[in-house]
Structures are given as structure tokens and as C-alpha cells.
Write a structure and sequence with these properties.
alpha+beta; single chain
């Protein structure tokens, strides 16, 4: 299947978003002629092998909660995620804080 890169996503985010694990990174890289340090621009189409999902539980949680993995945008150095309900930050103690 083809997916479109969203704002603030990098190859690591996309591997987690669509394969459910960083273990999907080699598939993403090979299928799309990328490198681990490749910068992918918003709007870029990439190929994902949806039949090779690594962690279906993670994907079902992302789908259920409307999570978009987009760590390329880190307003204060913490992990930054975007959901349908709004943006939130995961701090160093793994607390979820809604971003205003």
C-alpha cells in the first residue's frame, strides 16, 4: 500500500506507525530506496508492506486512539505526538501532557 508522509514524521516514525515497531525500518528503507538518515518531506508517498506488520497490537492501539507518530516536532525536547484529540508530550517520566 502507499502512504503519505505527514508533517514532522521521519523514517523511524513511519516504521513505528505502519509496522508497529522499529523492526519495520529495514523494510521501509529497502522498499523505498531510502537510508536510515533519509529526510522524507511531508506529502512524500512511500510503499508499506501491510502484510508484514510486526506488532499488530501497537497498530490497533494507534488506530483506536488516532495516534500519529510524529517525533520530528519536539517543542521542548520531549517526545511529541499528535492525536485526533490534540497534541501531547511524553516527558522523561513517561507522563502524557496535553500540548497547548
Amino acid at each position: 500500500m502507499k502512504i503519505v508522509v505527514k508533517d514532522s514524521q521521519n523514517v523511524f516514525d513511519i516504521a513505528i506507525q505502519f509496522y508497529g515497531s522499529m523492526e519495520g525500518l529495514p523494510l521501509l528503507i529497502v522498499d523505498n530506496g531510502l537510508k536510515p538518515d533519509s529526510i522524507v518531506e511531508k506529502g512524500t508517498e512511500l510503499i508499506i508492506q501491510e502484510d508484514l506488520v510486526i506488532d499488530k497490537t501497537v497498530l490497533s492501539i494507534f488506530k483506536r486512539d488516532g495516534v500519529l507518530v510524529a517525533t520530528g516536532s519536539e517543542p521542548d525536547g520531549d517526545d511529541y505526538w499528535i492525536t485526533e484529540e490534540g497534541d501531547f508530550v511524553v516527558d522523561e517520566d513517561n507522563n502524557y501532557i496535553m500540548h497547548q
